Amino acid sequence: MDYQAAATIIDRNSGLYDITTNEGRERRRLFFSAQGNICEFAPRSRKRGYIIPQSTVANWLGLTKVVKPETNLVEKFRRYASRATFPSAFVRKCLLADPTKSCYENQLTSGTRIDGEIISLKAVERHVPWEVEEFRKSLAERRSYRSGRFDFRGYDGTLWIEIADKDDGYYRRGDIKAGLSKEYRGCGNGYYYLLIDDEHFIGVDID
């Protein structure tokens, strides 16, 4: 393979490539250096690597970027929901969702750019450890809880838990309704995440 042709493919498009040679196919993490060399990333590194000799590139018959398959967001909702240990109408809806349809069509979300975005309790805990401790206790004890507003990633964060007190066709008595609100400073608008398992919130709405 012509070295310049390979360099053109890799330039500004570093990542995993399938390389075809006379001996078969191999997969390597490649990048094009600022010095104009085709390089392979060192193991467990995203910044450093080793120059690949021109004689090696000359033996390449083909070079194809490996494209990761698009994530099925509905399957992501189902996967996280399967870990929940608490009763929840939202979790049940996730488990019954049709993966051939969108999150919006399954009525899991309102169809926004944060659909499926995950925020962990551990991430929130770094900002407000006491509030997360109270949230976890409330979840374990199946009781309502609402934190005060706290600073979270440049927004006003709020953690909350509600317990359904009756069956209404969607909620069952004792169901957990819990989430994380990430709102603009001093406003009632922002980003909303629902608790999907014991340790994670998932993006469902923007207001």
Determine the structural class based on helices, strands and strand pairing: alpha+beta
Order of helices and strands: HEEEEHEHHEHHEEEEEE
Helicity level: 10-25%
Looking at the chains present, what oligomeric state does this protein adopt?
A: single chain
Q: Describe the biggest sheet?
A: 7 strands, antiparallel
Which band does the percent of strand residues land in? 25-35%
Rg result: 24 Å
How many DSSP-defined strands? Answer: 12
Roughly what is the average pLDDT, rounded to an integer?
93
- State the end-to-end CA separation: 53 Å
- Low-pLDDT residue intervals, each spanning 5 or more residues: none
Overall geometric form: elongated
- The number of helical elements comes to 6
Notable traits:
31% strand; 207 residues; alpha+beta; 6 helices; 22% helix; 7-stranded antiparallel beta sheet; elongated; 5-stranded antiparallel beta sheet
